Amino acid sequence: MNLQTKLILYNLFIKAAMIFLMATVIVVFLDKISLDHLKMRILDKQEKLVRNLSQKEISELLEAEKTFTDYNILKEEYIILNKTRPVKLQKGHTERFTVSEREIEGNQEEYLILISHFRFGNDYYRLEIGETMAALKQLKNTILIFSLLTLIVSAIATLITDYTFTSYLLSPFYRIIEQKINKVNDPVHFNYETISTSTKDFQELDKSINTLMSKITQQFLTQKQFISNVSHELLTPVSVIKTRLENILSDESISEAAGSKIIASLKTLNRLKSIVHSLLLISKVENDQYEKTDLIEIPVIISEVAEDLSDRFSLKDIHFINNLEQNFSFSGNRALIHTLFINIINNAVKYNKEGGNIIIEDVLSEEQYHVSVTDQGYGMSGDLIEKAFNRFEKLNLNDNESNGLGLAIVKSIASFHNIDITISSEINKGTTVRVIIRLTPQAQAEITST
């Protein structure tokens, strides 16, 4: 889970907790708030009614001797006025609230009732104003729904602003990851350009990565130079020793036992020379000492490799089946791609069964071109597949001819050309090595148009 998602989820959790807390507070205090509001409304009606009453209206109400319900045809409120005995009034009237049931025009409801006394002229009156408790519930529900909607809308709005702000805040961080880490194939081509940001933490991160990559680059170059120098220096004494041994071997006076030892030593020297050449090749590829300007035609390369290995096919009675259907070509280094395929197909011969097949197939899609080399050999375990591209890792421990650098060379050449290599295998069924070439935007456009 990335940092932005965690921040959004944290804010979401906080806002959900706040909504729950506020909703709880609203529910707890809503009854009191609604009841107080309803009381204030009844008091306001009572005050207006008493203030605007005339003797004529009082007489009409008293003569009617019934509940006055014209204010609300739904009978949500009522007014009753009765003449009463003299009472002691404070500041002109007294009042109190009560909740009880009343029957208004045949309908019995529970009402919040304000009972007050006032004096008009020389007479005293008892005024009863009631509002149904259904109005209280309706008001409470209205306030609750409005409050919850307000909270939810506010939470959504703040989440959107949080997402926008965190995206803006973290954009330098993701640019650092993309430009300084994801797009770096090797330390030599690292981009030391400072990422523009006003956040001090990200500035420190960018600076630290640049410093670290500078140190890694120096060590990387030193190691490459060391391998190159050592490989060059080894070739001379190896060649000298080989020449001397060959001269000794040509002497007819040496014994058969000594000759056998010299032959064994020459084989060892040849193997050492092969390792040195392989290390030199890897070093040069990784140091970008090759041009990539050749037009490479895959069918031509495969045909050349098949011709180069025809003797090996015959020794193990291998059937080479070329099922390439696409005349695919791309820009790169022709010699290196030839080396890549000769190492892959050579392994398919080496670890194949007597009389087995090697099948070459290809698939062209809108974004990639796949070439697969499939053998019918002994297969590889999952652990061995994971280590297959490691240097000096042998696919078969009993193979004395291999130096464990074939697939390491393949990997270096593939990386140099931005090519992917995958291996799939089943024990006793065979192995498939896929060479996956990414198409350029121009090539993709040509395929789409056709």
Layout: helices, strands, pairs:
Blueprint: H1 3-52, H2 55-64, E1 77-84, E2 93-104, E3 107-120, E4 123-132, H3 133-182, H4 200-249, H5 256-286, E5 294-297, H6 298-308, H7 310-315, E6 319-322, E7 329-332, H8 334-350, E8 357-364, E9 368-375, H9 382-386, H10 406-416, E10 419-426, E11 430-438, H11 441-449
Parallel strand pairs: 6-8
Antiparallel strand pairs: 1-4, 2-3, 3-4, 5-7, 8-9, 9-11, 10-11
Helix pairs in contact: 1-3, 3-4, 4-5, 5-10, 6-8, 8-10
Describe the overall structure:
There is one protein chain. By secondary structure, this protein is α+β, with helices and mostly antiparallel strands. The protein contains eleven helices and eleven strands. It folds into three domains: 3-141, no CATH class; 200-286, Helix Hairpins (Orthogonal Bundle), CATH 1.10.287; 294-449, Heat Shock Protein 90 (2-Layer Sandwich). β2 and β3 form a beta hairpin.
Question: What are its keywords?
Answer:
alpha+beta; 11 helices; 56% helix; 4-stranded antiparallel β-sheet; 5-stranded mixed β-sheet; 3 domains; 450 residues; Helix Hairpins; Heat Shock Protein 90
**Helical residues, percent:** 55-70%
Molecular shape: rod-shaped
What low-confidence regions span 5 or more consecutive residues with pLDDT below 50? 66-71
CATH topology of the largest domain: Heat Shock Protein 90
Mean pLDDT: 79
The arrangement of helices and strands along the chain is HHEEEEHHHEHHEEHEEHHEEH
Highest CATH level, the class of the largest domain: Alpha Beta
What strand line-up does the widest sheet have?
A: 6-8-9-11-10
Cα gyration radius (Å): 47 Å
Identify the CATH architecture of the largest domain. 2-Layer Sandwich
Distance between the termini: 42 Å
